[in-house]
Amino acid sequence: MVRKSMRFLAMICVLVASQFGGVAQTRMPQMKFSDRTLANGMRVLSVADSSSPTVAIQVWYHVGSKDDPDKRSGFAHLFEHIMFKSTKNMKSEMMDRLTEDVGGFNNAFTADDMTVYFEVVPSNYLETLLWAEADRLSGLNVDDANFKSERDVVKEEYRQAVLAPPYGLFQYYLQQRSFTAHPYMRPGIGSIEDLDAALLKDVQEFHTTYYRPDNATLVVVGDFDQKQLDGWVDKYFAPIAKPNRPLPRVSVKEPGRKAEARFTEYGRNDLPAVGVTYLAPRKADPDAPAVYVADAILSAGESSRLYNALVYQQQLAAEVNSNFETREDVSLFVLTAVLSEGKKAEDAEKSLLEEIKKLQDAPVSAAELEKAKNQMITDQLRQRETSNGKALALGEAALLLGDPGSVNTDLPRLQAVTAADVQRVMKKYFTDANRVVLYYLPEASKAKKEGN
Amino acid sequence: MNTMKRVSLLFVLLSLPVIALAQTPQATPPAPAAPRSGTFPKPVEETLPNGLRVIVIQRSESPLVAVQLLIKNGGEVDPPELAGLADMTAALLTKGTQSRDATLIAQEIESLGGSLDSFARWDSSFTNLNVMSSKIGPAMEILADVVRRPTFKSEEVERLRQQYLDNVTLALGDPGSIARFVSARVVFGDSPYGHPIAGTADSLTRITAADIVKLHSRFYRPDNAVLVIGGDISAKDGIELAKRYFGDWQKPGALIETLSAGIEKPQGSPGRVVVVDKPDAGQAAVYLVRKGINRKDADFYRGIVANSVLSGYSGRLNQEIRIKRGLSYGAGSSLDARRDVGPFTASAQTKNESGAVVADLLLGEIGRLSSAPPVDAELTPRKAVLIGNFSRNLETASGFVMQAGLLAVQGVGLDEINRYINTVQAITTSDVQKFAGTRLDAKTSNIIIVGNAKAFLPELQKKYPNVEVIPVTELDLNTALLRKKQATGE
Fold first, then answer.
1. B218 shares a domain with B120
2. What is the ipTM score, two decimals?
3. Which of the listed residues A77, A260, A393, B169 has the most CB atoms within 10 Å of its CB?
4. pTM for the complete prediction?
5. What kind of fold does domain A7-19+34-236 have according to CATH?
6. Which of A163, A164, A371 is nearest residue B110 as measured by Cβ atoms?
């Protein structure tokens, strides 16, 4: 089970990367949500749905790994773990007592732009959880022993995510090499040295700086009575004061890329891997829907262009993928391939770039466009099957687009994407100068090369 | 969802501090309201004249349908030298039929916005379809085509073989997956659950198209299959679809062979301590493994409750290893009750230096389950976890379909779904203690550690002089010996 984790981020990106489409004969459920902002600046979004006697509660904080303090990479994520320790009125792990022990669950994830805490519980526990979330927003009360023990857990998470799997470092390097100025260049999991350097006093400071009602969005989806929910929110969240300090925001702008950059790294992988990234439009950009469609055409399913070319036809790759990783300031479009036995990284790179070029040179057919849109509709329906999934969609829309209503308009926006739009964004963003290429080769091949 | 019985029990537990500290209402959590109850939909079933069992579960909250076509045999029927045969056979279904090639199958299903995957597990092989309910007709036609009329062209066999070989290479780079492969060999020896289900480099090289055709004709037949349809579809429409696309699937004249994995007595010799030395491992994977139970064992519910005391975020293993000591990102266990006796596994990944400590902690907690069984205050929440997980799995169409399919393959009636909560609630402390004492004896368990041996071996050897050390380059998953013959000088 992945919990209190960075890994969750990858899943979110995948889900988010594919939430659009359109087919006339399918009834697309609309989310009827309530939207209010308290006097202290906290936004509250809710969808009442009594199909199951459970409720999902999420608190989205607009602070993420990009806000890690200087020389403290991984801090926002470490902090997320600490939020499950002693708070103003709860002892360590009490959140587990209030969720897991009554048949629910809790978890959290840290992304570049945000940190999200969530619980799903039997609906008669809603008020209890609102109290608990308000409590940890009000203040932390962590001791040094707790802090150090949880930091050790995060170091094990780093080892498990980055060092143990053969391609963990590949993903890590790919993010580092894709930015030159923006703090997005620091992988959210951090490094052992920076984690070791973190101090208990940093925790208090981070909480004071970022965990405030005007930097939080509460999302509640499931079995509740709207009036009752509003009353509980007034009771537990409204009294939390909005601090009279400015909220720091990252202002660094990632400069546009001027020329292709190439890197080679070595690891404990047996099969070479290739990664190619392009800086891409922010999620709120009008070009984003067309890039989502391009992403689906490239890598959704076995009929996708990359799978068909690199895995099926040319048998160059064991795995191939693309992902439109949307971020608040600047997004990244990432293509990766793990090679099949005996194949060369150069050949895989060439094939990846050929597929990009094909999408630039000729418009996709109506059938291919329709296929991509249908795949996105199904993905969105599946993402929104549960209360927790619906809440994730709503929170994401509020935070990254500033418009929770986009949960109901993103499909029509996708539906409007034309073949010409796809071709246009492929030409605009997938340029030679906007490319970073990373080869991730087996350590053994380095020794061989040097020996020759 | 019926998650309610546990809630009323917990009401008492959580109310106590509220009363004790009532003078500062903000300082303590408000007590829960009265629980609301729900029920699980009741599956409707019908067996067609050709023997195909059809199960339909309607839940129409989302316009989605999930379908699973199960064959009641999987990796356990692989001949010993052909590990991976059932899985390759299943995976090849979607790679060509008499009327469609692999590319066309992918294109057609994905144009409907659907997905179609097939693979084998232990005791069964699956073909899974997920699609919008408005597209279910044409999608079912493709599902039936791939299950009933696959061609297994040699070109596709070769292509898939290379993909499987690459996957073996990828898996052998990861300490956790190596530990899982070794665990199966240690518990099951050379018996059917012992081999890697997706094969080894040696076995994959031996598999021929003829082997695949033979396996398909033996096991893929309507009287050895179950079709489960769930989601936004009525029982009547579901049964009609099944008849339209599978009604004329001919049952062969010969009776179906009944095979058992034959591991009432798994062949592995218990008490092994195996270290696979992978000097470049970024972490050590530490596994405690032993034989567990089969699904029809009278102790099944005692077993899953006992396991839930150990496993899950607040289970004893994670409490001791992660929460108290910061030694791992997560520790847990599983009791995999298969048609025949399956494994019990407790595991954690940790820095190489802590490999021996974590092994001790795993063993200690297994022993403590009978020496210090959970009192009600511990047991009640763990049962709530089990029930909550079960209920949430049934919230999605695909989750419900998978649960019904699993019961069908294991030969358990579907009424079990609505009996689950009460049966779990009835388990007591002494049930857990009895199960732990008789079925999870630490002494007959095995320890597997895959990692950089230099960092933990001296400490481990002090406790277990019988430890077997196998360099990863000499690891052989084809047999329970686990070691390449030439390397031992034979």
1. yes
2. 0.92
3. A77
4. 0.93
5. Cytochrome Bc1 Complex; Chain A, domain 1 (3.30.830)
6. A371
